[in-house]
Amino acid sequence: MRLVLASASPRRLDLLARIGVTPDAVRPADIDEDPARGELPRPHALRLATEKAEAVAALEPDALVLAADTVVAVGRRILPKVEDEATLRKCMALLSGRRHKVLTGVALAAPGQKLRTRLVETVIAMKNLSAEEIDYYAGHGEWLGKAGGYALQGYGEVYVRFMAGSWSNVVGLPLAETRHLLKSAGYPLA
């Protein structure tokens, strides 16, 4: 059975490799990822994963299509994928000393089957960040393109003082739930 990953994220490819899965193709979905007006973080993550899976499944009707979207949320606020240092500094100041949620929506489209979805939540508490720590991290560069501006799989982990939930979810793809979705659709896994 052919598997297409609807994501350009190298982290998702690495995570899939941990469970012995190598997609046959990588085909990122071209959708608008902006939150709808008043959209809350949980429905936003699930909607984007669903739209990505559906968009790529329309182009790959005979394949399994796996899609995901990871959102960092402080309360009802969805933090952006950080593309510049000013946004990084705002995100780090907001996260400093606070708990936040990392939500990943996962969707799997299978030919002739109902779309399967999961939403996974991990709670993280950041330590209080000094101006020097934020300056150092800003110079590090690993934050570029990351939701909320930090990489748990990189240096950003030193700022985390508490985590409840899935580590792989925070990196971008909750492995237990993804494996379950793939197996339930008949994808061959050990």
TrEMBL record:
Q: Which residues of this protein are catalytic?
A: 69 (proton acceptor)
The cellular location(s) given in this protein's UniProt record come to: Cytoplasm
Pfam families according to UniProt: Maf (PF02545)
Q: Which reaction does it catalyse?
A: dTTP + H2O = dTMP + diphosphate + H(+); UTP + H2O = UMP + diphosphate + H(+)
Q: What is its EC number?
A: 3.6.1.9
Keyword annotations from UniProtKB, A to Z: Cytoplasm, Hydrolase, Nucleotide metabolism
- Enzyme class comes to hydrolase
UniProt-listed InterPro entries: ITPase-like_fam, Maf-like
Asked whether the keyword Transport is assigned, the reply is: no
Predominant cellular place of this UniProt entry's protein: cytoplasm
Cofactor(s) required, per the database record: a divalent metal cation
Q: Per the record's keyword annotation, is Nucleotide-binding included, yes or no?
A: no
Looking at the UniProt record, the site noted as Important for substrate specificity sits at 11, 70, 153
Give the family, as the similarity comment puts it.
Belongs to the Maf family. YhdE subfamily.
Q: What does this protein do?
A: Nucleoside triphosphate pyrophosphatase that hydrolyzes dTTP and UTP. May have a dual role in cell division arrest and in preventing the incorporation of modified nucleotides into cellular nucleic acids.
Q: Which HAMAP family match?
A: Maf
Cited NCBIfam families: maf (TIGR00172)
**What's the protein called, per UniProt?**
dTTP/UTP pyrophosphatase
Give the organism, scientific name. Answer: Sphingomonas humi
